[in-house]
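Hey team,

Filing this mostly as a record. A colleague (T.K.) asked me to run one chain through the structure pipeline before their review meeting, and I want the input and output archived in the tracker in case anyone asks later how it was produced. No errors, nothing strange. Just documentation.

Input sequence:
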Amino acid sequence: MKVFVCGAGQVGTSIAQHLAGENNDVTVVDLSPALIQRVNESLDVRTLLGHASQPDILEAAGASGADMIIAVTQHDEINMVACQVAHSLFNIPTKIARIRAQSYLAPEWRDLFSRDNMPIDVIISPEIEIARAVIRRLHVPGASDMISFAEDLVRVVAVTIDPECPIIDTPLRQLTELFPDLHLRVF
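Output structure:
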């Protein structure tokens, strides 16, 4: 998959590292020579110094034929325009943007991020993600993590247990027999 990451900060570099580790063709674009140099020294990805939302920079980076753009610069507006340019000029099918300003995400503006207006397929809001993580932790006290699937019908819960815990080495299929009050199913 051919992916463009706009922004070479901590988040952009981490995303690029994971994508490159999965053998994707990754290009990182950023305005900072120091950040671009750091990415060049640490990752096996293509880099380009420039403004991530400018059409000529995306074209020079090879945006034609790209599968995805992930815009995670420090500026919401640059992320949004990069996705718009990727959609309008280069027909990049998947557009992901980090949007931090909650005013853009208010319910009354929900139509802003539609294919007809600002075509962003996935919005990453760090503040909303943190709030969701806190709520997940509150729903399952003692869990170190929880991920919901199928509209919260299925949950994967991570817990840490003591080395002396009696369920260690118990086959999963026997957990419901030993603990009938647990509301879980093991398949």
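Quick notes for T.K.: The first helix runs from residue 10 to 21. The chain has six helices and eight strands.
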